[in-house]
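User: Please fill in residues for this 321-position structure.
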């Protein structure tokens, strides 16, 4: 058992980004593990999606035709367990998403495997997979090994692993799984689209982010204007979003959005809690402004200033005018 099985996630005829990110994570340890990398695409239109999963490092794409045109966790559980056993997968990777969490733990229970959720790091110790995840509400990071477990199921955090850029030359193989007799988990009624967001933190290249130091919502327009003037997207820490001073789409971090495309991050009055830093791990250059010289944000910042954020905003405004 040395292979890796990545379970493709898709919606509305498109692969979700997390699928390609899982392929990137799997490809980075494939040689050390010693087995092939297989992607399973399950769905009504599985064959049409197979080509999109054909990326560098993938050896085989298995398509499983589903009788249901909508996602059903029971069908995924059956299909993934069947393919994992047929391909003797050592490692099964599933997105840490609403869909992935609906069938991933059930797959792990059925396969009697080791299991970890919300994994943000994947490596090898010898030929043993090691999964990194948070603990105690994200206050610590831990590396997990799975001794004596022949199979390991992991759900991987999105916007965390790098997707391969090059196309692959995997073979595409239809795989029959008897899904008609599997009792579904419910009746699909409708999809409700999320309300449109005014920012896309995941794609923003330059983010000016404000923390609790802004104190109250009437102070936000000053920083929104500064962000606009600098050509930055306005981000925030969780207390700012929780207080309703900015919509949730602006929140950077573990329970917000990961700034996965950001080259410059200006953190104004943000202490640097681990949950916020989880959203900044891809940032190239971090500039932190905080009145507390001991603030943890300075441990990760490339440049820092012990300055009051209101004084800074006013000084910049004067500079512009
Ligand atoms: C499960 C879980 C998930 C979480 N997810 C997230 C998440 O996704 N994103 C997130 O941000 N947090 C998240 N949190 C919350 C996180 O733990 C912190 O509480 C939060 O990040 C703190 O936000 P902050 O830095 O704005 O506030 P604080 O920690 O209160 O820091 C404010 C900082 O501003 C500085 N300051 C104050 N006044 C000024 C001034 N005038 N000028 C300059 N500096 C000043 C202070 O010195 C301080 O360092 C999560 C927590 C949990 C338990």
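Assistant: Residues filled in for all 321 positions:
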């Amino acid at each position: 058992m040395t292979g890796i099985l990545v379970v493709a996630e898709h919606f509305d005829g498109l692969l979700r980004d997390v699928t390609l990110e899982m392929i990137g994570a799997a490809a980075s340890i494939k040689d050390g593990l010693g087995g092939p990398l297989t992607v399973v695409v399950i769905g009504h239109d599985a064959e049409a999606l197979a080509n999109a999963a054909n990326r560098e490092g993938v050896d085989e794409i298995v398509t499983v035709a589903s009788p249901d045109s909508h996602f059903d966790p029971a069908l995924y559980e059956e299909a993934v367990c069947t393919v994992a056993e047929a391909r003797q997968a050592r490692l099964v990777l599933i997105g840490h998403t609403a869909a992935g969490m609906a069938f991933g733990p059930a797959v792990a229970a059925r396969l009697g495997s080791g299991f970890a959720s919300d994994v943000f790091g994947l490596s090898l110790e010898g030929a043993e997979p090691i999964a990194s995840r948070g603990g105690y509400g994200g206050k610590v990071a831990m590396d997990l090994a799975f001794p004596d477990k022949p199979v390991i199921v992991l759900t991987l955090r999105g916007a965390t692993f790098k997707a391969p850029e090059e196309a692959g030359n995997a073979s595409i193989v239809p795989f029959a799984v008897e899904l008609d007799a599997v009792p579904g988990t419910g009746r699909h009624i409708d999809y409700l689209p999320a309300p449109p967001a005014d920012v896309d933190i995941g794609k923003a290249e330059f983010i000016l982010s404000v923390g609790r130091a802004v104190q109250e919502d009437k102070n936000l327009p000053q920083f929104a204007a500064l962000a606009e003037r600098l050509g930055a997207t306005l981000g925030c820490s969780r207390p700012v979003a929780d207080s309703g001073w900015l919509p949730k789409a602006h929140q950077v971090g573990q329970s917000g959005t990961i700034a996965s495309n950001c080259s410059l991050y200006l953190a104004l009055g943000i202490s640097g809690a681990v949950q916020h830093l989880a959203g900044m791990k891809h940032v190239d250059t971090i500039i932190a402004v905080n009145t507390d010289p001991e603030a943890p944000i300075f441990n990760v910042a490339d440049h820092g200033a012990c300055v009051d954020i209101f004084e800074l905003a006013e000084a910049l405004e004067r500079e512009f005018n």
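For context: Residues 52 and 149 are 32 Å apart (CA to CA).
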